């Protein structure tokens, strides 16, 4: 049965595939049935006429899930063997299978009708064919023109072939060899010629097939003279070659190149044309005779620089051999000067910072003398011979500065001379003047990152007619009444009088600790105490 499916939608493509797998024929012309398919967004729409084709398609698609249809009539399709269906995507499978089952059902119906007709007319046709066949066997080879080319035989008479052929004028018997039919091919029927490996070859006569190659690396086989054979290749299908000249002499590869190979080129007999860039590698002992430099003939011997003399730059990592000497003739374009002096050819020398050698100064001018500081002295060691000398100016002469020691603390005038005067003024001031008969005390708050240094103090004590007892004042490294006593003094008992004690000191407190100046007792009813302290902080 011939079926035409029109449309490029998915259902049309699938339906064609289903039909091709059955014994139906999918055609584009002269169909027994025509199906139009397209996909749209509306309901399943069927355009046809009331016919078995339409009814079967509707019933089968409904069984597969299509719940309602839109039937088109009037001026649409008017044939009972043609149907058009538009469907939404969700019913694609129902449309595909429904139409496939519909069309194969129609095909079975046609087969059933055909089978009934065959059974009805089988006996008369068989009798007629038997009579015609018997007539052909009983008479000459001439047969009616209605029988063309081949004729089926319903039975096999004795001593007659089963098949006879019509060549256009007469009937020819088929011949057999055993049970095989003999066929004589008269043109264009020959296959490729066969040729056994290592067989004899006759020039101009022997025919062979296209060239083939063989992998034959282990136990290589040879071919005799005037015999053909398969050439060799490797397992990657690369053909082996062995270059030879016109006389058949092998062109060898140099053994020095090893397994990597390389073609040896020898132009001793004929000049070889070369084009492009050629790179060569000279041997390690090859020498070159240079006659020019920068386009100018090379200058030899000694003399000033010229265009023919190459410029030489010594590499930064170059080093001379331990026993090699250099004869230096010029410095900065001037001849090297020898002996003492300031000539242009003298080499300027800078002494390394880590040098341990001895430099002897010969210049009389102090401004031109630069000597290295000797830092080799250790604590409590003797003064180094080349140590720097620090002195103070007393207004007329330089006097060496001295550090504090037992010897330098004596009261001799010589030891005190030369001490450098250093003065650090007060940066902070504190004082306390309390009420009568009250202890005077004041503190400098602690410095979190440094120490207090006391520079100057004052403590005053006064009394009226009642009088006051002897009293003591203290400077503490800490809070009132608690810190370590750094300095202390006493005042005698007084009556209708006053007394003050002052002094310049250098008292260094503890890091992050307050400093206090205070009296010990309050005194009588008419007594008055005052204290004051100034200093600076160190970090």
Q: What name does CATH use for the topology of the domain at 2-115? A: Aminopeptidase
pLDDT under 50 segments (min length 5)?
A: 138-162, 409-419
The assigned CATH architecture of the domain at 2-115 is 3-Layer(aba) Sandwich
What's the helix-strand series? EHEEEHEEHEEEEEEEEEEHEEEEEEEE
The percent of residues in helical segments reads 10-25%
Count of alpha/pi helices: 4
- Per CATH, the superfamily of the domain at 2-115 is Zn-dependent exopeptidases
Largest beta sheet: strand ordering: 2-1-3-6-4-5
The counted number of beta strands is: 24
Our Rg estimate from Cα atoms comes to 66 Å
Q: What structural class results from the helix and strand content?
A: alpha+beta
| The CATH class of the domain at 2-115 | Alpha Beta
Strand content: 15-25%
Using the alpha-carbon principal axes, give the shape.
Answer: elongated
Largest sheet: 6 strands, mixed
User: How far is the first residue's CA from the last residue's CA?
Assistant: 113 Å
Average pLDDT works out at 77
What distinguishing features does this structure have?
single chain; 539 residues; alpha+beta; Aminopeptidase; four-stranded antiparallel β-sheet; elongated
How does this structure look, described?
A six-stranded mixed beta sheet has the order 2-1-3-6-4-5, covered by helices on one side. The chain has a four-stranded antiparallel beta sheet with strand order 17-24-19-22, with no helix packed on it. A hairpin with a 4-residue loop joins strand 7 and strand 8. The protein contains four helices and 24 strands. 14% of the residues lie in helices and 22% in strands. The longest helix has 47 residues, at 92-138. With 539 residues, the chain is α+β, with helices and mostly antiparallel strands. Helix 2 (52-63) crosses helix 3.
């Amino acid at each position: 049965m011939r079926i035409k499916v029109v449309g490029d939608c998915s259902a049309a493509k699938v339906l064609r595939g289903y039909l091709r797998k059955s014994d139906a024929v999918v055609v584009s012309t002269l169909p027994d049935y025509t199906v139009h398919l397209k996909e749209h967004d509306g309901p399943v729409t069927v355009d046809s006429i009331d016919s078995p084709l339409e009814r079967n398609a509707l019933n089968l698609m409904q069984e597969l899930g299509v719940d309602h249809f839109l039937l088109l009539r009037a001026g649409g399709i008017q044939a009972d063997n043609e149907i058009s269906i538009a469907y939404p995507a969700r019913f694609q499978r129902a449309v595909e299978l429904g139409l496939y089952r519909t069309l194969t059902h129609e095909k079975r119906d046609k087969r059933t009708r055909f089978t009934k007709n065959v059974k009805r007319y089988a006996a008369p046709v068989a009798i007629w064919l038997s009579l015609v066949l018997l007539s052909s066997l009983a008479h000459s080879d001439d047969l009616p023109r209605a029988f063309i080319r081949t004729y089926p035989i319903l039975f096999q008479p004795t001593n007659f072939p089963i098949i006879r052929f019509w060549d256009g004028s007469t009937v020819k018997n088929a011949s057999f060899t055993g049970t095989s039919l003999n066929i004589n091919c008269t043109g264009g029927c020959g296959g490729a010629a066969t040729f056994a490996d290592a067989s004899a070859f006759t020039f101009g006569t022997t025919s062979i097939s296209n060239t083939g190659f063989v992998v034959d690396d282990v136990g290589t086989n040879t071919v005799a003279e005037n015999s053909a054979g398969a050439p060799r290749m490797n397992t990657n299908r690369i053909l082996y070659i062995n270059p030879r000249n016109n006389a058949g002499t092998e062109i060898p590869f140099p053994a020095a190149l090893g397994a990597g190979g390389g073609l040896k080129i020898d132009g001793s007999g004929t000049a070889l044309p070369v084009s492009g860039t050629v790179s060569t590698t000279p041997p390690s002992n090859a020498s070159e005779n240079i006659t020019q430099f920068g386009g100018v003939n090379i200058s030899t011997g000694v003399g000033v620089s010229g265009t023919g003399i190459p410029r030489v730059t010594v590499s930064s990592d170059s080093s001379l051999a331990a026993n090699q000497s250099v004869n230096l003739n010029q410095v900065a374009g001037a001849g090297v000067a020898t002996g003492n002096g300031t000539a242009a050819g003298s080499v300027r020398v800078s002494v390394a910072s880590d040098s341990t050698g001895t430099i002897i100064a010969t210049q009389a001018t102090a401004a031109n003398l630069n000597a290295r500081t000797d830092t080799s002295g250790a604590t409590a060691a003797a003064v180094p011979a080349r140590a720097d000398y620090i002195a103070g100016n007393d207004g007329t002469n330089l006097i060496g500065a001295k550090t504090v020691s037992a010897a330098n603390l004596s009261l001799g005038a010589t030891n005190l001379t030369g001490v450098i005067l250093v003065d650090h003024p007060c940066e902070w001031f504190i004082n306390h003047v309390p009420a009568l008969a009250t202890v005077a005390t004041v503190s400098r708050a602690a410095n979190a990152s440094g120490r207090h240094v006391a520079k100057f103090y004052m403590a005053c004590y006064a009394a009226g007619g009642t009088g006051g007892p002897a009293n003591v004042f203290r400077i503490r490294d800490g809070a009132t009444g608690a810190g370590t006593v750094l300095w202390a003094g006493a005042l005698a008992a007084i009556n209708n009088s006053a007394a003050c004690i002052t002094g310049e000191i250098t008292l260094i407190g503890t890091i992050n600790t307050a400093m206090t100046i205070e009296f010990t007792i309050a005194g009588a009813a008419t007594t008055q105490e005052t204290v004051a302290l100034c200093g600076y902080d160190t970090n």
